Each structure stands twice: as C-alpha cells, then as structure tokens.
Amino acid sequence: MSTFIVDNLKGKTTANTMTVLAGHATDSTTTTNLEQGLAKAYVQFSDSDSTFDETFNTSSTTDNGNGDISYDFSSNMSNANYPASGEAGGDFSSLYSRIISHGGSTASTVRFRCTNNASFSTNQGFRMSSIIHGDLA
Fold first, then answer.
1. For residue 12, is it within any domain?
2. Which of 32, 69, 115, 126 has its CB 3.0 to 4.6 Å from that of 47, i.e. a possible disulfide?
C-alpha cells in the first residue's frame, strides 16, 4: 500500500472534476465533481439543552417554536436554492421520529420544521440532524 500526500489536487481538463477508479471490475471509472459532491454543512442539534452536539459550517441556532429550528451558516451558501435533508425525533421514551421540511431558508440560514405531529417542546429531548449540499458563496 502506498501513501500519497498532497496539499492540492486539480483535474487535468476541468479543475474540480477527476476520473476516479471505482474499485470493482464491472465499473472501471466514474467521473465525480469533487467540489459539488461534498456536504457543505451538517448539524446534530439537541433541543433539550439548545446545543449543537456535532456541527460543520454552522455558527448559531434559533428555536422558532415547537419542532421549528433555524441555524446560521459560518460560510454562506451562494443562494437559497440548495438541497437540504434532515430528520427529527423527541420523547425518547416512545422513540418517535418525524420527517422535517426545509423552508423559509436563505443563503445564510437554514430552517427546518417538523411536517407531522410537531408537538415537540424543549424539555422533551427533541433532537434534529440535517445535512446541506450545494454551492458556497
């Protein structure tokens, strides 16, 4: 096994696209955009103590009410049209989870709301996880 240590990688034809060996015999190569394919932000938020448990590219959070959380990016997205996904749950004695929607977001803030049975409160152990893809500004 060899180790290749570099500070920068650049595609030959297009700077942020490279051909990468897929690692199995039936698919010898695949083209991937290294910049587009990476998560730009993620968060694991615990509403019971209003803290981030795990975070990347996030600076602060706002509790907008039951099952409605916003967080600000440390580095803004290029616009408000980025893909976001997440899940939420609370009341760990009954272990229910909810699908959450991404709406009312801007280039600097993402907002998630529970789409069904959004009766979470801060003392129920509400937790939310989300991941953001797209272009940074």
1. no
2. 126
How is the chain split among helix, strand and coil, in percent rounded to 5?
0, 50, 50
Instruction: Map residue 20 onto helix, strand or coil.
Output: strand
Tokens 């997440």, residue? 86
Whether 137 is covered by a domain: the verdict is no
Provide the domain limits for residue 80.
41-132
pTM for this one? 0.69
The residue ranges of DSSP E strands in the chain, in sequence order, are 17-24, 27-33, 41-46, 51-56, 58-65, 68-73, 84-90, 96-102, 109-114, 127-132
* 26 belongs to a structural domain: no
- Cα distances (angstroms) measured from residue 51 to each of 56, 131, 137: 13, 17, 26
pLDDT tens, residue by residue, 55-78: 899 988 887 776 677 889 999 999
Task: Report pLDDT for 107.
Answer: 93
> Count of domains in the chain?
1
pLDDT along the chain (137 residues), means of 10: 84 75 59 73 75 85 77 92 80 54 83 63 65 87
